Amino acid sequence: MTRVHPVQGSGLGLRRALMGPLEDQPSAIGFMEVAPENWIDIGGPLGRRFRAFTERYPFVCHGLSLNLGGAAPLDEAFVRRVGQFLDQHQVRCYSEHLSYCADDGHLYDLMPIPFIEEAVEHVAARIRRVQDILGRRIAIENVSYYCAPGARMREIEFINAVLERADCQLLLDVNNIYVNSVNHGYDAGEFLRALPGERIAYAHVAGHYVEDEDLIVDTHGADVIDPVWDLLAGAYEHFGVFPTLLERDFNLPPLPALLGELARIDALAAAVSTVAPEARQGHG
Length: 284
What we know:
By secondary structure, the protein is of the alpha/beta class. The protein has one domain: TIM Barrel, CATH 3.20.20. Helices cover about 40% and strands about 20% of the residues. The chain is built from nine helices and twelve strands. The protein has helices at about 15-25, 45-55, 75-90, 115-135, 155-165, 175-185, 190-195, 225-240, 255-275, and strands at about 10-15, 30-35, 60, 95, 100, 105-110, 140, 170-175, 200-205, 210, 215-220, 245. The chain has an eight-stranded parallel β-barrel. A two-stranded antiparallel ribbon has the order 5-6. Strands 10-11 form a two-stranded antiparallel ribbon. β10 (about 210) and β11 form a beta hairpin. Mean pLDDT is about 90; it is low at about 280-284.
């Protein structure tokens, strides 16, 4: 069965610093992504500029504060506000991190959820509730993490269990797989191939900071490196092509450099699209 993705092609995270250059230059960007928290209730001239972008491009949203793994009650009022924003701007997909970010107050960071069965049930129930409120499936992102407190499952087992029990989609972050494979000593390709490709809504690629030979920090502040591009190519070969977004949150280069990385995504996708399905390594 052919998968239907919410968007197509290569995408770019819309940052306010990019709005001017993008307004003045038509581009081949397939879709854009924003954090809804950064744009809900923004009106006036900036709100009108943002609306012009959502009318021009397909959009997806990647949330920052849903706190799916947290112990505090789910903020259902916030979820409904997000739903109104998604409807207002005809957002194609809403995703969140498989992490927690609050505990009697916002922690301003994405903290690792323990890889245990109880956490699977807790997170899956919260995802199902969010989906019930929004009336749509959401996607969860495999996150980078730097410790695994109290783990009784492998990371891949935890992610797959949450996806199945929540019956949600996957935002496949290729860079996070690479980062975690270095930091925690596992095979990135093997991990990737163990994910359920049929659940992939879209993907992220990004750059990172190398602190040491066995410590990489996920920053979204640098160019994508060759091993991450290779992992993305392997994902296309294994699962088939899916929409892929370039994350760049700071140290923004000139727009042509960003568009050059989008062109590389498109080239990898085109190379795989020319290969007959039976000749690929596998499929989702």
